[in-house]
Amino acid sequence: MRVVYSVHGKILHVDLSSNKVWIEKYGDDLLSRYAGSRGIEAKLYWDLVPPDAHPFSEKNVFFVGSGTFTATPMPSSGRTTVAFKSPATGMYFKASVGGSFGLKLKHNGYDLIVVRGKAEKPVYIYVENDYVDILPAERYWGLDVRTTHIELLRKHGYESETLLIGPAGEKLVKFASVNCSVYNVAARGGGGAVLGSKLVKGIVVGKGERSIALYNPKRFLELAMKAVYNIMNDEALIATAKFGTASATMGLDKTSTLPVYNFRKSYWEHAYRNAGEYYVEAGYLVGRVGCAQCIVSCHRHTKTAKYGGVDTVGPEYETSNALGGNLGNPDTDALIKMNDLANIYGMDTISLGGVLGWFLETYEKGYLKNVAEELGTEPTWGNVEALLRLIEKIARREGVGDLLAEGTAVACEKVDPETCKWALQARGLEHSRVETRIARAYALAFALNPRGPDHLHTETFAEFGFSEAAKKLIKRLTGSEENAGVGKDTGRPEIVVWHEDIYAVTDSLGLCAFIDTAGYAVDEFMLAELFEAATGIEMSAEKLMRCGERIVTLERIIQVREGRTRKDDTLPWRILNEPITTREGVTYKLSKEWFDVMLNKYFTLRKWDTKTGVPLPEKLRELGLDFTVQEALKHLSA
Amino acid sequence: MFSVSTVGIKISPELCTGCELCELVCSTYHFGKSSIRLSRVIVFKDHAGAKFTPMLCISCPGMPCVRACPTGALVVDEVTKRPRVIVEKCTSCGDCAKACPYNAIRFENYVLAYPLICDLCGGDPQCVKVCWPRALVTTSDLREVYTSAAKAKGLIEEIARKYRG
How far is CA A12 from the centre of its chain? Predict the structure, then answer.
């Protein structure tokens, strides 16, 4: 083990059951193989979380780690990765989050925190340099995220930073989120419920006095400055900076890839009400908000005087669509209010939109008719009053909210298995807001994603070929620019493999995926140079992408150990069985045959077994994942 | 490059997104180490209210920090006309930071034994270079520098009130 730079080489373990705290040290052994947070967390997960652990048991472990470039002058690299066994999917789950938590964690001298065991009563973890404590949190239990953040900063100083759960996490809502710096959310998979089950309100890091040493600071700063320049000149990032992530809405509407009304339509006459351009034009935008180190600052500070007055951050594209068009809701003021409620109660807006979309359709089709009485109004498409009440009820698990808090997969089975046909979920996770019947690389990526049908694991935005840079990338990956475009279905496995690998690296370094997979300000060659200048570990683009492959493969074998098979590599029923028609009248349908061909090709590229989806032993050995070979053999022979 | 004696940095709190890249670039440029605690530009943040502002020495008239220094460790630089620390003379008392009406002096003696005051990087301020939101821009209109800093000062006081325990 050699000492490395840019990270502290320190993992803080906090065991709530035994009330013990200790530090584990690491160096180039882990960093050169796993690149940073996400990779290291996957390795620790393999070591620490037994396959039979219930997500809410004390055997589950919650990991939080800052990226390798976090707290360095590299722009847009302040992201933190959390990992845990998800109560929604019952399997390994990772989520990346912005905000300043990772930055402050590193200022306190740690790269990762591992939260193990279970507390007896509500607590929060306080970390300030060498001082680590488990403190009582009874007085914060039940408080929303915003209030808790302010209270805790009043206590520990305003330069502290928080990672918190809201009331939804405490109530074990299956899609409860983990919020950093209040409005930055590790939303998906129910990480908030995992912390809630451990009776942990959150983690507070003090202002911190440790600085981050760089191997070659001069070279690193040079490269960082180049990245700054590239970001400022990237077409996609300029739009994102100006109009936020919701700047995507109109492009998707135009190409009929904007899923609305629970994925029954792919374009919408009111799409502009969910567009970033509209938020600016109609005066909702107060200012921009940046995650740590991010000059793009795509978050929106928004305000409305309606609905009792709201002053908040968001909504993002996914939220705008999930709680807007998806529910037939063109009321932007209500959308801002709903986004704020989800934020402060600590809930994932994508899953929230998914479960509400399922509920509205279920009600429309004649089920759960008594809910109208409970809500005092008919839960119909776009009925904002009903929707706002439902969000409150879900967060508190009251009445029908208790059913919906279980997530779409469980709720539909409880009501009537027939309703699962319009439950837009696979493997327990609600589908992200992109039309996968048309966007075929997304379709393949969503089916393979260890999280579920979700975009924040493999962002294959390039497949649309919206920009010259995207077209160039598709040519590099598949050999032809012809493969870029809306509705194209060739070369998808190659596109997915590269995007999975670079995304794993991106997360591990703390970089935002917008910088290298939606905008193209940096590529793997530049990242390798940066990695070398930062850490002192010799690195090439090939070696770095190899780290990505290693992480993706390790995550797969982790899930194989937890019971995943090729059968799970699938998409929601509606996506696979119902066609979608564009505005121009073109109909798209995913055929099972196409899907199987693509999966086979993907498994062949990965050197994973085509029959079972288990990584082959020779691949595992090649990647230095020898410790997983035994497990692979068990499932290959089964 | 410009002459630091005639130009300053204008602060626009309404444009600051709280990303703190300026701080990390500042510290790496000056110390070869990355830390917001080693930065001469200070970002004040209210995440709950989504309000942020950077602050740095604007070399204000009268220079109360220089007058407050009991040991003569803080002087007005002859070339730049900005406060400069003579490290050997500094006793880490912190009076200069207390005297600064703008909260623009970083003095945290557990990290560094002397105060950090913006030197405009000798005429090529790195923070301005990376601030794409343009919350920090160079200007030759010194009145603009003072009025913008007064606005930032107001926000800093507001944030302090909000989070006072």
Answer: 23
